[in-house]
Amino acid sequence: MDRTDELRALADVQARLEERFPDLDSEVVEAAVRVSHSQLTGHVRDFVPVLVEHAARDRLAFAARDGDSGGDPPPGAPGAGARATGVTDTRGPFRG
Asked: What per-residue confidence (pLDDT) applies to 83?
């Protein structure tokens, strides 16, 4: 998977998560996807979109359950300690 395909797949992930979590602002969804993506490094990128979707979905489920307080996920949850807030670029990195 090249970089363009990966970014296209991540935009699809973001769109699916926005549908799944309609009560959360799109900026929160974008931030969860961005944080999840930033934590994945390495040379094999084929499964990155799937891994990002799972991690971002877990973050968003926590935010939706927690009333979108912007708190950190509980210890042991995927991405614990990483905040999915603080979006400054509202265009989103995956939408151009």
From this structure: 44
